[in-house]
């Protein structure tokens, strides 16, 4: 499999890249600080470190073209001023459709899951923490771009992400928070789930709640 990873140098992205390489995949690792991969790139011909900006249409298209799938783990600020998560996904979707690449798994936040027993998102419930609202709205915009596309998308809605390796022990749920929910997930387990979902296709055109 040839995989393009956006946000490859972030906490989750690095786990995605290394786990995908361990599976024998060819990986286009796209980001602004991909110098961290240069030594590995010399040793592993399956790794291609691509320095670029997710808002640049040509750079994103050239990365995606010829790929079998895309994983987006884009990050950004929490003040709502950084549009990397929303407009970044918008550009990725546009270039995927242009390149005829149909499968994407993207990372968002837990606020985009359905509130229990209600026809609304957790993000819009009264109990949602106000400090997370700006980034939550960014995730919602990214989710809406995915829903409006013709792609086979999966949107992973994570709780607090811990910078730790995969354990393989976690629970998931379709469109709702999982039970039990410990409100945390290891970065390695997010990567593990995303790569498995590429093979299993269990959550196509759905959101996923996940927790360790």
How would you describe this structure to a colleague?
It is a single chain. By secondary structure, the chain is an alpha/beta fold. The protein has one domain: Rossmann fold (3-Layer(aba) Sandwich). It contains 6 helices and 10 strands. An 8-stranded mixed beta sheet has the order 3-2-1-4-5-6-10-8, sandwiched between helices. Strands 7-9 form a two-stranded parallel sheet. Strand 2, helix 2 (38-43) and strand 3 (47-51) form a beta-alpha-beta unit. The longest helix has 16 residues, at 84-99.
Structural class assignment: alpha/beta
Give, in spatial order, the strands making up the sheet with the most strands: 3-2-1-4-5-6-10-8
> What helical percentage do the residues reach?
25-40%
User: How many structural domains?
Assistant: 1
CA-to-CA gap between the ends?
A: 28 Å
What do we call the CATH homologous superfamily? NAD(P)-binding Rossmann-like Domain
Unreliable stretches, pLDDT < 50, 5 or more residues?
Answer: none
Q: Sum up the overall morphology in one term.
A: globular
The largest β sheet comes out as: 8 strands, mixed
User: What share of residues are in beta strands?
Assistant: 15-25%
CATH class: Alpha Beta
Write the layout of secondary structure elements.
Blueprint: E1 2-6, H1 11-22, E2 26-31, H2 38-43, E3 47-51, H3 57-64, E4 69-72, H4 84-99, E5 103-109, H5 133-148, E6 152-158, E7 160-162, E8 171-174, E9 184-186, H6 187-200, E10 206-211
Parallel strand pairs: 1-2, 1-4, 2-3, 4-5, 5-6, 6-10, 7-9
Antiparallel strand pairs: 8-10
């Amino acid at each position: 499999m040839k995989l393009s990873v956006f946000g490859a140098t972030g906490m989750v992205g690095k786990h995605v890249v290394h786990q995908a390489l361990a599976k024998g995949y060819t990986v286009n690792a796209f980001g602004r600080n991909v110098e961290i991969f240069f030594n590995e790139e010399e040793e592993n011909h399956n790794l291609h470190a691509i320095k670029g900006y997710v808002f640049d249409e040509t750079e994103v298209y050239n990365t995606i073209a010829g790929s079998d799938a895309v994983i987006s783990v884009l990050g950004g600020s929490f003040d709502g001023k950084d549009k990397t998560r929303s407009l970044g996904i918008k550009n990725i979707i546009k270039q995927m459709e242009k390149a005829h690449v149909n499968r994407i798994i993207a990372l968002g936040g837990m606020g985009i899951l359905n509130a229990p027993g209600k026809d609304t998102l957790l993000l819009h419930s009264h109990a949602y923490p106000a400090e997370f609202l700006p980034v939550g709205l960014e995730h919602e915009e990214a989710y809406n771009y995915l829903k409006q596309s013709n792609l086979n998308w999966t949107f992973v809605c994570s709780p607090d992400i811990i910078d730790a390796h995969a354990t393989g022990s976690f629970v998931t749920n379709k469109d709702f928070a999982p039970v039990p929910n410990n409100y945390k997930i290891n970065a390695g387990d997010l990567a593990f789930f995303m790569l498995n979902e590429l093979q299993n296709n269990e959550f196509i055109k759905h959101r996923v709640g996940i927790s360790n």
